[in-house]
Specification:
The structure holds two protein chains of two kinds. By secondary structure, chain A is α/β, with parallel strands linked by helices. Chain A is built from four helices and 16 strands. In chain A, the strands form two sheets. In chain A, strands 8, 9, 10, 11, 12, 13, 14, 15 and 16 form a nine-stranded mixed β-sheet that branches. In chain A, helix 2 (55-70) packs parallel to helix 3. Chain A is globular, with a radius of gyration of 18 Å. By secondary structure, chain B is an alpha/beta fold. Classes of the chains: A alpha/beta, B alpha/beta. Chain A binds chain B through residues 42, 45-46, 48-55, 57-58, 92, 165-166, 188-191, 230-234, 236-239, and chain B through 436-437, 439, 443-444, 447, 449, 462, 464-465, 468, 482, 497-498, 500-505, 518-523, 526-527, 637, 692-694, 703, 706, 709-710, 713-714, 716-718, 720-722, 725.
Chain lengths: 241, 811
């Protein structure tokens, strides 16, 4: 494999963190991707907000690049593959064809997320709550349980921020220590949460690092060098909401 | 003649008041009788409003049949209230059977309902409220009998994106009320013909009436004794002398350029207010009732001075104002003239004004403004663009009011001056955007909001659109703000969320003329208490507060520099400053660009004196740093003022001529624009105005940042998959128009091609001090006080002015 991503030995498995935002597990020939949120645009359109309908095509095209790059035997979608329950049924014919073509000749596993608790209607692949793979435990929402296996999760949409004088950069990122690896959200319409937010930071027992996604490289930054989002006025609430 | 135009009881009323109908008032009556659309150009105090209403009052006195007769539209809510008060006077005194009412966003719902079922003869409103009225299903019946539309302060609104919204509303009115006559009221403008075209599409049966401009104003420049600041724009040094001026007159209006400056200067005046004069504060972020109180006190003559921003640029005549003080350079001659007009209570008497420059460059600018007013030259108005996002909002409004035909609406829209040349393809694209989102492959057919019937009419199919539209009317997308409350008591006004996020409980800040301590947030409101401890308070800053120097004044400033023989008009310290600049470096001659370079503290500085205004210099700064990067000079930053741009880098620029080559405005600018946060920001606003993304409502939890984020994702996806989508085109068009400053820059760079005068200096020049001193403080927008600034500049000044031979400090 050409050296695009950053190598990481995680849970005893040789893995690659790819700048597209996917995880490659070499020994298992498995590609892991989190939070595709397909059909988010049409979910909004149903409610009257006619966002550009290209998010699914965009997300699938980028996923296609990743599949072409690694030619995985297995693809694992780590939950929230669809933005809502209606998503899979509402796929445009072209997008459905694209997705079917991507899955052809490989095992496709849909791990269920909070946005898509049901198996995706009419699509190839198997639907699971979680997956054990070698020394790894893969699921959507990290539940904090430690049974000796290192955990790979999604759900949190981590991003990291760096400030140096007037230069600022905010990027989606992987967040990892030795026990937990959280994947960035992959979907075109997904936002992010700063890894220094307690909701993410609190998942790691001590030092963790962010692996920020660059154009063609991944940048590892230790958590103590990261910057929080600009302060939020809500932190001084007197009414405890 | 007069008695035909002015029937009883009007002549007696004029007589009782000791007035005489003015020529322009009679001209307006004549125009009305002939059904002619008229633009009236008159100074404040010229009886402009009465001239606008008089024909309607006469008409209604003759025939007070029920129904809406006259619609008055003003750019400011406050102005509608003032005008209502003024209108009450003739109606009551002549006991005319005429009803009138105010309708703005502040009008309570029950009164709005009554206004719709029982329309007054005269309705006073704003462009946004007019748009709302036009979107009701009964709009056709409501406006059918309308005879006259009066548009006040037309010059101020025709310059902004709101002008496009108003123009579309006017076009709609022309369709609904073919009988209506359109009247525009305006201050003096550079090009009255352009404004007339905005008022009416008719070339026949339209005219301009110009009132007697009155006596020439008397303007002075106030200069401090001794020292003159090098930089800064607050001019706190002048508080005492301005106070002395206030003491010497009955009532003064003290204009400043930003809200932060208003707070600081107000506080400074009160520090020296030994006589406890009634000095008040007025700016756009203060609570409405607070502003009304100040305006009412002003009208009664109970105040000695008001420190204010453009919030009081427009408005009715206050009679007693006998001095206008402009603190900080006026940035444009039209705006200065408008402000001076606020003291113009008697036409035959000269208005009195004092200009208070905040620094040395501003002395030149004040002199330029004074020359301009004396010569009667004004700033040109920007050309309005056919904003496609505003059109989308308008079409949505039309759809809310009922079924419509594409052809008819297209013809009607083109009656609005900014849209006169709108192509059918563009119109259809916007219509499709409203109906289905306008995406190329029609993916959202099933979510269609407008349906075209077999009769060819478009009908609304999704009623959610109506609610969305009514919540989103308007073209101004503001930074999210929060209300400030004093304890559990009254509201003082609003400050930006961004500023709140920088506060920690216990922090003090200056707002509404008070020193406040931040306690916390309750019910999404900022809770503050009077601060006990003094110390260094923070000052809320507001986005987009500062206007750039107009190109007209910039030309005049350049002209002053190029003609030392005219310097005798300038004060001594400024002359000396120019003189040392001439000896140490050079003064930019006509037709050349002066660029200075020098090393200082391990950094290489470049300062270019292009005088094209702050906005253009910001763009130039981005382009220069890109280019310096490519040249290997390792740039670190830049800072822009109205007068010049400074960059600093670790290495020296190898070729200054090439650096300023005009071709950077081609390729470099295009690349930069496509990637720039400016285009994203404009896209975000277009998406809100067009109704793709909802405007944040007060109290709604969704934060401004969230909207920001979503819009950027939409922008990225749309740019890849449908780069010609109507919203991207709207954003690009607006970006191009807001780059008029860049066109100014392009013109200038072209004109100085081959005449770039590079001065390599041993050390910083007197001119450069003014800009270098602001480095590092640019982010505390408006927050710095001149004192700290002076400290900072002291070392620079000593360095620049020290005589190299004796080491003596000259200034």
């Amino acid at each position: 494999m050409e050296g695009l991503g950053t190598r990481l030995d995680f849970g005893g498995e040789a893995s690659t963190l790819d700048p597209l935002g996917v995880l490659w597990l070499e020994a298992e020939a498995t590609l892991v991707v989190a939070d595709l949120h397909l059909e988010k645009g049409s979910a909004f359109a149903r409610r009257g907000t006619l966002l550009p309908p290209y998010d699914t095509a965009r997300t699938l095209r980028r996923l296609g690049w990743a599949i072409e790059r690694y030619r995985p035997r297995t693809v694992v979608s780590l939950g929230d593959a669809f933005h809502d329950r209606a998503g899979a049924a509402g796929l445009a014919a072209e997008d459905r064809r694209e997705l079917t073509a991507l899955a052809k000749g490989r095992t496709w596993l849909w791990i269920r997320g909070n946005h898509d608790p049901d198996p995706p209607a009419g699509l190839a692949g198997e639907s699971l709550a979680a997956l054990d793979l070698g020394g790894l435990h893969l699921l959507h929402l990290p539940d904090g349980k430690v049974d000796g296996r290192a955990v790979i999760a999604g759900h949190l949409h981590p991003k990291a921020r760096l400030v140096q004088g007037a230069r600022k950069a905010t990027r989606p990122c992987f967040a990892a220590d030795s026990d937990l690896l959280v994947l960035p959200a992959f979907g075109a319409y997904t936002g992010g949460l700063n890894v220094l937010d307690p909701a993410i930071k609190g998942l790691f027992r001590s030092g963790f690092a962010a692996y920020m996604l660059g154009e063609s490289r991944v940048f590892r930054v230790a958590h103590q060098h990261l910057d929080p989002d600009p302060p939020d006025w809500r932190r001084h609430r007197l009414d405890g909401r | 003649m007069t008695d035909v135009l002015l029937p009883e009881p009007f002549p007696s009323w004029f007589e009782n008041r000791g007035w005489q109908a003015r020529p322009h008032q009679l001209a307006m009556l004549e125009a009305a009788a002939g059904g002619i659309d008229t633009l009236l150009i008159a100074p404040t105090g010229g009886g402009k409003t009465l001239a606008g209403f008089l024909p309607s009052l006469i008409d209604l006195a003759r025939d007070p049949a029920p129904g809406l007769h006259t619609l008055y539209v003003s750019p400011l809510k406050a102005l509608t209230t003032d005008i209502a008060r003024n209108l009450a006077m003739p109606i009551e005194e002549m006991a005319l059977p005429v009803s009138f009412a105010v309708r703005t966003g502040d009008t309570p719902a029950n009164r709005r309902r009554r206004q719709r079922t029982h329309p007054p003869h005269i309705l006073l409103t704003t462009p946004e409220s007019l748009a709302l009225l036009l979107s009701y299903e009964d709009a056709k019946a409501y406006f059918a009998g309308l005879r006259c539309v009066v548009l006040d302060e037309l010059h101020s609104i025709a310059e902004s994106k709101r002008g496009a919204l108003l123009a579309l509303g006017m076009a709609r009115l022309r369709g609904l009320a073919p009988e209506a006559r359109f009247v525009g009221l305006s201050a003096t403008v550079a090009d009255p013909r352009q404004l007339l075209r905005f008022l009416t599409p008719r070339s026949e049966r339209s005219q301009i009436v110009e009132a007697d401009p009155g006596a020439d104003p008397s303007i002075e420049i106030e200069l401090p004794d001794g020292r003159m600041p090098w930089s800064g724009h607050i001019a706190l040094y002048a508080a005492e002398s301005v106070y002395a001026r206030i003491q010497a007159v009955r009532t003064a209006l003290v204009f400043v350029n930003t809200r932060a400056q208003a707070e600081l200067f107000f506080a400074a005046l009160w520090r020296v207010n030994d006589a406890n004069l009634a000095i008040a504060l007025h700016h756009g972020s203060l609570a409405v009732d607070q502003r009304r109180k100040v305006e009412a006190a002003m009208a009664k003559g109970a105040l000695r001075a008001v420190v204010c921003t453009s919030s009081l640029d427009l408005g009715i005549d206050w009679g007693d104002v006998d001095l206008v003080v402009q603190v900080g350079a006026p940035k444009g001659s039209s705006r200065l003239l408008q402000r001076i007009g606020r003291a113009n209570h008697r036409l035959d008497e000269a208005s009195r004004a004092v200009l208070v420059p905040a620094n040395r460059f501003e002395v030149l600018e004040c002199q330029a403004a004074l020359d301009a007013v004396r010569a009667g030259t004004l700033d040109g108005a920007p050309q309005l663009i056919p904003a496609l996002d505003v059109l989308a909002q308008h079409i949505t409004g039309v759809a809310c009011s009922g079924p419509f035909e594409g052809d008819t609406l297209y013809a009607e829209v083109r009656l609005a001056q900014p849209y006169a040349d709108l192509s059918r393809a563009d119109f259809d694209a916007v219509l499709d955007f409203v109906a289905t989102g306008g995406y190329a492959l029609g993916q959202y057919e099933r979510y269609r909001r407008l349906e075209r019937g077999t009769d060819g009419f478009f009908r609304l199919t999704d009623k959610r659109l109506v609610r969305g539209y009514r919540m989103n009317i308007g073209t101004i997308v503001e930074a999210p703000v929060m209300r400030v409350k004093l304890g559990r008591g009254r509201s003082l006004g609003e400050i930006e969320e961004y500023f709140v996020s920088m506060l920690t409980p216990g922090d003090t800040f200056l707002f509404a003329g008070r020193l406040l301590a931040f306690e916390g947030i309750r019910n999404n409101e900022v809770i503050a208490s009077p601060a006990k401890k003094a110390g260094e308070p923070k000052i809320p800053a507001y986005a987009g507060g500062r206007l750039p120097l107009s190109s007209h004044l910039a030309d005049r400033v350049r002209d002053i520099l190029a003609h030392p023989e005219a310097w005798h008009a300038l004060p001594e310290p400024v002359r000396e400053w120019l003189d040392i600049q001439r000896r140490r470096s050079r003064l930019p001659a006509t037709g050349e660009l002066l660029v200075e370079s020098f090393w200082r503290g391990g950094r290489h500085y470049l300062v270019a004196y292009s005088f094209v205004g702050r906005n253009a210099h910001q763009t130039l700064g981005m382009l220069l740093t890109r280019r310096l990067e490519r040249m290997g000079a390792r740039p670190l930053g830049f800072v822009a003022s109205d007068y010049c741009i400074a960059t600093w880098s670790l290495g020296e620029c190898p070729d200054v001529e090439a650096l300023f080559d005009v071709d950077m405005l081609g390729d470099d600018l295009e690349t930069w624009t496509a990637e720039s946060s400016m285009l994203k920001r404009i896209f975000r606003n277009c998406a809100v105005v067009a109704g793709l993304i909802e405007r944040r409502q007060p109290g709604q939890e969704k934060s401004g940042r969230q909207v920001t984020f979503n819009a950027d994702l939409i922008y990225d996806v749309l740019r890849k998959y449908e780069p010609d989508h109507v919203l991207l085109r709207a954003a690009r068009m607006e970006a191009a128009a807001s780059l008029t400053d860049v066109r100014r820059l392009a013109d200038f760079l072209t004109s100085v091609e081959g005449r770039i005068r590079h001065q390599k200096l041993e050390r910083i020049s007197p001119f450069a001090v003014s800009i270098i001193a602001t480095i590092g403080r640019e982010f505390v927008a408006g927050g710095e006080s001149d004192e700290t600034l002076d400290e900072l500049t002291a070392s620079l000044v000593a360095e620049a002015m020290a005589d190299p031979v004796t080491g003596e400090v000259l200034a």
